[in-house]
Amino acid sequence: MVEVDRSTMAPERVAAKFTAYRELFRTKVKSTDPALADRGPADGTVHWWRRAWPGHTRPGYPPVALVVTGAGPTALANRQEAVADLSAECWRGTGWTVTQDDNDGDGWREYDDAVPVLATTLELLAEHGPLGPVWWRYGRPGRHSLLDALENPDNRAAYNQRQKVREKKARQEHREWMRTLACADCGKVPKQESTWHYGPDGNRVEWTHQPGGRCWACHQDREERLEREAQERLEAARAANAALRPCWTCRGSIGGKEGSKLELREKASPDRLECPQCEQDRAAEDLGPLVLPVPTKREQMAALVSTPDDPWWEDRVLHAKLYPAKGRRV
Questions:
Q1: What is the CB neighbour count within 10 angstroms for residue 60?
Q2: Cα angle for residues 218, 222, 225 (degrees, 5° grid)
Q3: Cβ–Cβ < 8 Å for 241, 255
Q4: Do residues 45 and 108 make contact, with C-beta atoms less than 8 angstroms apart?
Q5: What is the mean pLDDT of each run of 10 residues along the chain (330 residues)?
Q6: Beta 64-69 vs 117-121: how paired, if at all?
């Protein structure tokens, strides 16, 4: 259908015609199709306009062309926009958005109950012809050829295509992210960011992969290796501390009691005089620093002849110089 609008007709009257067209297109009549003869009244009816335009296959009702004339370019452009605003309910269609999709608010429009309106001016038709880029499809920017103007680029099919592109991009980004979670030891890329495993205590633990981290198997191997190395270092420290002079106070190993929380896990320093437990007890009782007994004159005379068989001899001599004998606590 073609509506010719001369500048003397009010935009409200033109917009009202589009409303009337839609009501006409909504009208249903009994179908003459023999295949529908046995169906009920509701099922055996078709839209009236399908009899007149049986070849119409696009979604929505038959299009209506609006041709304006009788004024200057600016006035005609304003007139087309005014009619579009007043008749938006007829041609806009119904918008839909799938909110659960990661689509940034994207959606589509359904035109099953909409009247496609194409507007142009008589001057553009005379210059370019009806097949030229002269048609403004209400709801879309720019001027298009007739066939392009009749298409619905914002329909469900177009949305599905955009959604496929988004999903493909999301899958690619996820694959790239998963590659950053490759195990630092074996290089295996996990299939999932988090997985469940049974820990050493038999309980299920959720293992979350991290960039530069390890998979659960390599993590377990590393923990076991570190535990073995720590135990080996502890055994070596125990052997080394057992070979050193004993604790001055308890005469036990200078490294402390095996298996205790305070046991030294490294070789003791040469100047250590007490094991960790005795050192802690001394601090708890506020006894002050340990000061060894001053060598006697007999020990000093014997030291001139041979090296004293006393593992603390050098410390006793040093303490005698550092701490005067008078008034000190031993």
A1: 20
A2: 140
A3: yes
A4: no
A5: 68 93 90 57 75 79 92 92 94 86 82 93 94 95 94 90 91 94 94 90 92 94 94 94 93 93 93 94 91 90 88 90 66
A6: parallel
Distance CA 171, CA 178 (A): 10
Pair 55, 110: CB distance under 8 Å = no
Q: For residue 45, give the H/E element and its range.
A: strand 45-47
End-to-end Cα, the chain, rounded Å: 117
Return the sign of the alpha-carbon dihedral for residues 253, 273, 269, 230.
positive
CB 47 within 8 A of CB 56: no
Cα 208 from Cα 200, distance rounded (Å): 17
Give one DSSP letter per residue of 160-227, joined into a string: HHHHHHHHHHHHHHHHHHHHTT--TTT-PPPSSSEEEEE-TTS-EEEEE--TT---HHHHHHHHHHHH
pTM surpassing 0.70?
no
What are 87's two structure tokens? 């008749």
Helix (H, G, I), strand (E, B) or coil at 136: strand
One-letter amino acid identity for 87?
S
84 with 21: CB under 8 angstroms? Answer: no
Query: In this structure, what token pair is assigned to residue 330?
Result: 């031993």
3-state secondary structure of 250: coil
Length of the chain as a residue count = 330
Residue 64 token pair: 């209506």
Residue 277: partners with Cβ closer than 8 Å, 6 or more residues away: 250, 256, 257, 260, 262
